[in-house]
Model the fold of this input.
Amino acid sequence: MELTLLKKTIYQGDTISILIKSDKPLYKQKLFFKGKYYPILKIGKNRWHVNIGTDVKTTPKKYPIFYKTIASSGKKIGIKKHVHILKGNFRKSFITIPKKKKKLAKAKYINRESGIIGKIFKKVSPTKYWQGIFKMPVKGTTTTPYGAARFYDNGKMTWWHKGIDIHNKIGTPIYAPNHGKVVLSEDFVSHGQTMIIDHGHSVYSILIHLHSRLVKTGASVKKGQKVALLGDSGIATGPHLHWGLSVNNIRVSPLFWVKNEVF
Done:
């Protein structure tokens, strides 16, 4: 059997992608990273994969990955691999919320919506939908990159940016970054018009601040299919799309999936 890392060195926010292959069936497979068990999901005959998200809070250093299984012969197999996570280059972002939108930034709205979104991201989706590399969902200019430290209204509110913001005019078409199933299509207060696409195996795209949503919850979508129009709904200071990607409930850099064909 063979265990392969897509990359042995990555940056904070990138995804640890692991492929497991064998000529014969494997049993009781277990994989651990940072003391946590990660589900090993089947993608073909005697082929499995594991994707582990990292973010800006992941300490840069060299980490061990532990894998255990039992071969069809009954032999116990243990493999230890290492991945080196380097410090990402994250900038600061200063934003002033327009007066007319301050009422949308109340904690009761943010907490309620974040709870709904977080509950979806925690689900282990059983089917893998995505194929190949992801595509940018909209044309435009990136105004705020992934991982930026955001300071709102002179530092009164602050958190790190969990996706990328892409600016363009209202009504610009937004496309599905990859195949998947729409698991949320809703008009929120703080996040504005929002859509979540399940790409399978606990990988989710979230599209925020939409002008309008063109597909409903439960719909299957193809990579490149038009699913929404860009807007400035919710707590948005101007027209843009916020595209976030969650991998096993960790908010990762979407650009890694655009630049790499993840296992």
Notes: Residues 2-86 form a domain with the Immunoglobulin-like fold (CATH 2.60.40.10). Helices lie at 107-121, 254-259. The chain has two domains: 2-86, 92-259.
